[in-house]
Every structure is written in structure tokens, then in C-alpha cells.
Amino acid sequence: MKDMVIFALAAALLLQPGPSVRPPGAVLRDACSREAGERARLPGGAPVRILYAFSGETGTCYKVAAEGREGYLAAEDIDGLEAYRQGLRTASDRELPQMIRAEVTRLRAVSEGRPAETGVLSLLETSRPREALKLMETSLLPAARAAGRKDPYLLALAGLAAFQSDQPRRAAEFWAESLAIRPDPAVQRLYLKVQGELKSDTSRERLSTSRFDLRYDPGTLNAAAASQLLDGLNDESERLNLALGCGFQEKITAIVQDRSAYLASTGAEDWSGGQFDGRIRVVVEGGRVTPAARQALAHELVHACLARNGRFDRWFHEGMAQRWSGEQPAGPVLRQAYGRAQPPDWRKSPDEARLFYAWSWLAVERLYSVHGDSGVRQMLRNPALLPAPRVN
After folding, report:
1. Is residue 102 part of a domain?
2. Same-domain check for residues 305 and 341
């Protein structure tokens, strides 16, 4: 019965209608302009996959994939945009790192008065999941079994520790056992996520150093390129540790995938090229370690570094990740972001998400200009010192 319920929920999500071409049809163009060249004529009702939004001379339009081609459609040529935008507004509920942070917050509220469990959560919040899992498996779970208790809370917590330790199958077992005792929507969403990963992730080969476990698909990356990527991870972690004082205490798992496998196993947006969910995930195209791939590694390593030091707001995470990976938003979007007194709502639309990243970059640059390297490093050691963000 439980599997039937989970399948029904997954099917309901998949059956939501997506954006489509507005009848009677529209021209798929080379650029966001009515004068741009034609790539195809799309019939009304043809489904489209939105890649990202783009502000052109005719207003907002969208780069889309439709009928085997990619190109641009104006907003008025697309049906179902409101549902799509609503999906973006609630994307944080489906984005795996956000789901994990939300679950840690929820479990912390439940753990009040339970110091042992609070200790496990503190380990998870500072990116020490292997230590957390060891504590769960050698102490808390055996003690519960000895007392004749099957605690769905402990099992949910063990699932988080296993997942972030890159043991997704073990995580699925813990979460399935927890759900069998007491249904819980948050645990169920995580269970669905890990089941999707187990089906889609073909990264089985491993390389290791004292700092990293690199997991990759040999069909995506050969052994020499994987070794080069691992060297890059070590170099970047040394650089960031010197600059930011990361203090990495546990090995970090890095998972390298091609774009289709990455999207299938994470459920990330099409424009995403990396993710940190306790593990680093990056996309590598064409089997080569390009500068873009190395930059993506550095970006996600900054997220891992900040996670070791405590909880920071998203604007700080994204601004720091861009600064220390060498990314800089384009001039027009920076000028637009500079006029905002508050951070844009990154969940609202692709345009607002792009503005949010630019705003975050500006806010972090201002932080460094006011407080300097030493001042920001103090904030990294004590998140409570971080002031309210400003860009001007």
C-alpha cells in the first residue's frame, strides 16, 4: 500500500500539464526578436520545455526546446506560463538542497529536549554526515532497538545522515522504515527523491584522495579525465581553505555526470550546472574537464565550505560562490540589480533568479569593500556577525 501511495504521488506530479504553444501556432526564432530568423513553425498545443527567460526588445521571451529544436518564443506565444511561474515560486520545496535544509530545521524543532539527536543534527548542519551516521548506527538506533522502540524520527534522521554520506540505498531503507511506522510528507518527498536517484545515477566508478571521493560514469568521463578532475578538486580546496578557512573535517563526495543524468537524478532546473546537497554534483560535457567544469567545482566547493561553518543566508552563499569561483554577472543585469534595495525573489521567475544572483554578487562585493578580507573571515567563523545585505 505504501508503495502504491508513493507511486500515485509521483504520477500526480508528472501528470501536471506543462507549457505549450498557444493556438493557432507560433514561430520558433533564433533570438528574442520578431525580426530574428525562423527555426521552425510550431503548431498550437505543441509542448515546450522552458530553458530560461530572456529580456529582449519585445519584452520577456523564453528560450525553449520544442519538437527536437531549441529557439525563442515570446511570452504571448506560450500557454501555461502562470502554472510554470507558480512552479518556480514553489521550486524550493522540490529542490533537493532546500528540502534537506527544511528537513534538518523540522527535525531540530522536534528534537528539543533530546540532546543526543541535537548533536547529530549539529553534525549534519556542519557537513559531517559520516560522523553523524556513525553515531546513529553505533549508539542511538541500537539503544532504541534495545528499548523495544521503533522511532520514526530517529529513522528519518538516520536517512538524512546516510544520504549526505553518499549512501542513497541505505537512506532509502531508513526512510521507508520511518514511513511504515508513521507517514510524513517531508520524509516521503525525500524518499521519492532518493528513489529517483537510485534509478537514474549511473556514476559507479570511484577515485579517492584523503579529501575527496570522486564518483563518475566511465561513459561520461574516462579515468585520465577523472584523475584530472580530482586533482582540480584538491587544488581548489587548498585555495579556498587558505582564503576562507574552510576547515574541511570529512571527505566530500563529488559526483560527476552528463547533463541528462544530472537532471534526471537531481530534478534540478535545466539551467543548473551544479548542486551541493551534502555532496558536490557537477555537469561535465563532452568527457572533458573544461574551465567551465572547474569553475562549477569551485562554486560548489564554496557552498561546502560555508556549510562547514554554520548557516548563512542564500544571498551570502551565492554571492560568495560566484566571487570565489571567478564568476561575474553581466553588466546590464548588474545595473538592474543595483537598483533593488532588497534581494529579488529567486523563486518568482527565471528573470528574478538571474537578478538575485547579480544582487548577491553585488552584496558580497560591497561586504568585502567595507570589511576587507579579515572582516569577512571573522563573519565566516561567526555567522551572527554578518550584517544585513546591501548593494549600495
Report:
1. yes
2. no
pLDDT tens track for 86-104 = 444 333 334 566 667 677 7
The string of pLDDT tens digits covering residues 134-189 is 999 999 999 988 888 888 989 999 999 999 999 999 999 999 999 999 888 888 88
Rg (CA), the chain: 22
- Strand, helix or coil for residue 70: strand
- The letter for the amino acid at 308 is R
Give the separation between CA 391 and CA 342, rounded to whole angstroms.
9
Q: At CB < 8 A and 24+ separation, what contacts does 180-187 make?
A: 180/2, 181/150, 181/151, 181/152, 181/155, 182/152, 183/2, 183/5, 184/152, 184/156, 186/99, 186/102, 186/103, 186/106, 187/103, 187/152, 187/156, 187/159
Q: What is the pLDDT of residue 87?
A: 45
At 209-238, the pLDDT tens digits run: 988 999 998 888 899 999 999 998 999 999
Q: Are residues 100 and 186 in the same domain?
A: yes
The single-letter code of the amino acid at 43 is P
Residues 350, 302 share a domain: no
